[in-house]
Write a structure and sequence with these properties.
The complex is a heterodimer of chains A (257) and B (270). Chain A contains five helices and twelve strands. Chain A starts with a strand and ends with a helix. In chain A, a hairpin with a 2-residue loop joins strand 7 and strand 8. Chain A is of the alpha+beta class and 257 residues long. Chain A has one domain. The longest helix of chain A has 25 residues. With 270 residues, chain B is of the alpha+beta class. Chain B contains three helices and 15 strands. In chain B, strands 6, 8, 10, 11, 12 and 14 form a six-stranded antiparallel sheet that branches. A four-stranded antiparallel sheet of chain B has the order 1-15-9-13. Classes of the chains: A alpha+beta (257), B alpha+beta (270). At the A-B interface, strand 9, helix 1 and helix 4 of A face strand 1, strand 8, strand 9, strand 15 and helix 2 of B.
């Protein structure tokens, strides 16, 4: 039972080769293909390559997403020893829940997602991201969640140009960042209840709901009376409000006559 | 049924036809200027300046006063069809950004252009400029190459900050069935990019781009959106939530309301 602020990052490092197809097979994702940061074949995915399944007592709220910025492959940098120390992958990242793609283009077709220019990661002090994932995305129990990136600059074909001799395993070639809040146990139940009531699921609303439950102390006579009193007060307040607003009906004035 | 924060980004990048063959190092230097429904694949060009030169990277120059539709302008990444909303969709367009600074962006809904000059004529400059809404926002731009693109305003390091960082307020509401588009115009006096010697090794500084962000409201939420508009409420995420809360609350209270005396005292029937 907890509310935890979580983050997950994915990085693609070099493999201590020059990166050509002949010397490095299967380490770099082909350009233009979509791959998962959770179970894909490239980069530091989870060891078991497990799909992101939200358990029945979990509730996720995804609030942030970002990836490596840049477009032109000519933004690369090589150090004096011929090591590639910076690469521009020209990447986009997308969120997939079950079979639904979050990002779609204006013709309502599956798109590549949000770019690193719109939502950069890592973020520099000069960056003022213009894109914010608002409203956040709720992922419900028993749904699958995935984050898929697409890189449009072909690293391995670029390696054929002899601009570098080595891609060290210390060079981060591409990265994706995901920030979310994880509600589990009874907190997940409360989050689900709030969602059903149309109330935004935030840490403060869940904690507030928990306080209300604790105050109610379960379903006892006192609890019933508490709710009854609350609802009665609310009805009175609404009635008074309608009178003040001049929209009260005859029924609202019945008790006064 | 959902409220989704969407974005779309256009760039003037072409794709080498070399990518259509295997191995890719044997074809001629020919490019597709327009790529449909995805972004172009690129790579470092091969042996530039030699007899075996093969190009894998190119940006499409934009001439002075040239106007390009970012959805269907036949340059860079495009869509099959123009942007048009379905019967159960609303779009709240609240953000636009463009690069380079001398480019302008205009939003078109049906036959109306959003940005106008004071005399009521659609903006002759072509809309809002990259000086006002740069993309990306605030990022330092390398000022070693093509210094004429770096204006003497904004951050000391050469980056600009989006004057409308909170978005267009009020936002533009595009209704079901409406057609919409965004155009960019090179409002400078020179072609962009302008340095032929650098064009084969062009970095991000030479890539024109336009970015829009919007809320896509569809399904049952679009009905709620319609009700909010009819009531004169701003179409925001918070107001959509609040309306739905009120709907649920009304139903809860309706179930708890006291019954009229005639019904309460009526004889129960099975």
């Amino acid at each position: 039972m907890a509310i935890r602020k979580q983050l997950y990052t994915w990085e693609l490092f070099g493999d201590n080769t020059d990166g050509r197809l002949a010397t490095s097979q299967g380490h770099y994702p082909p350009a233009g293909t979509e791959n998962s940061i959770l179970y894909g074949d490239y980069g530091n995915v989870q060891p078991a390559q497990q799909t992101g399944l939200v358990k029945e007592d979990d509730f996720l709220v995804i609030e942030e997403i970002g990836c490596t910025p840049g477009i032109s492959p000519y933004g690369f940098m090589v150090d004096g020893a011929g090591n590639l120390v910076k690469w521009i992958p020209n990447m986009f990242v997308n969120i997939v829940i079950d079979t639904t793609n979050y990002y779609q283009d204006p013709q309502n077709v599956w798109s590549s997602g949000v770019s690193g220019f719109a939502s950069p990661y890592p973020r520099q002090t000069a960056d003022e991201p213009y894109y914010e994932l608002w409203p956040p995305i709720y992922v419900l129990p028993d749904q699958t969640i995935d984050f898929r990136y697409t890189m449009f600059n072909d690293l391995q074909l670029s390696a054929e140009n002899d601009e570098w001799v080595n891609i060290p395993d210390s060079t981060v070639l591409a990265a994706v960042y995901v920030g979310y809040t994880h509600y589990d146990g009874t907190d997940a139940m409360m989050a689900r209840k709030l969602m059903n009531l149309g109330i935004p699921v935030t840490v403060s609303t869940v904690e507030s709901y928990r306080r209300l439950l604790l105050k109610s102390k379960g379903l006892e006579i006192e609890t019933f009376e508490f709710y009854l009193e609350t609802m009665k007060n609310e009805r009175e307040r609404r009635k008074k409000e309608r009178k003040n607003q001049g929209i009260a009906t005859q029924q609202d004035y019945d008790g006064d006559l | 049924m959902s409220i989704r924060r969407q974005c779309y980004e256009w760039r003037n990048v072409a794709e080498s036809k070399n990518f259509q063959i295997t191995p890719p190092l044997v074809a001629i230097d020919d490019f597709n200027d327009v790529i449909l429904n995805r972004y172009p694949i690129s790579a470092l060009s091969y042996k530039i300046g030699t007899a075996s030169e093969k190009l894998f990277w190119k940006v499409v120059p934009i001439a002075p006063n040239q106007v390009v539709d970012i959805f269907n302008g036949d340059i860079g990444n495009n869509l099959d069809i123009p942007g048009q909303l379905k019967a159960y969709q609303f779009v709240v367009l609240d953000g636009i950004a463009v690069y380079p600074p001398q480019f302008n962006a205009q939003i078109i809904v049906n036959t109306t252009r959003y940005f106008q000059d004071p005399d009521g004529v659609p903006s002759r400059d072509g809309g809002i400029s990259g000086y006002t809404v740069p993309f990306p926002n605030g990022t330092r731009t390398p000022n070693t190459a093509l210094p004429r693109f770096i204006p003497n305003i904004g951050q000391s390091q050469g980056g600009l900050l989006n004057t409308l960082a909170d978005g267009l307020q009020p936002p533009i509401i595009i209704r079901p069935g409406d057609r919409w588009a965004v155009e960019v115009k090179n409002n400078g006096s020179e072609e962009f990019p302008t340095a032929p010697s650098l064009i084969k090794r062009m970095t991000d500084i030479g890539v024109a781009r336009c970015f829009i962000k919007y809320l896509l409201i569809d399904g049952a939420d679009s009905i709620v959106a319609q009700r909010l508009i009819e009531a004169g409420w701003p179409l925001t995420v918070e107001n959509l939530w609040r309306y739905k809360q009120d709907l649920i609350k009304t139903h809860l209270y309706a179930g708890m309301a006291e019954l009229p005396e005639s019904i309460k005292n009526a004889r129960r029937k099975v």
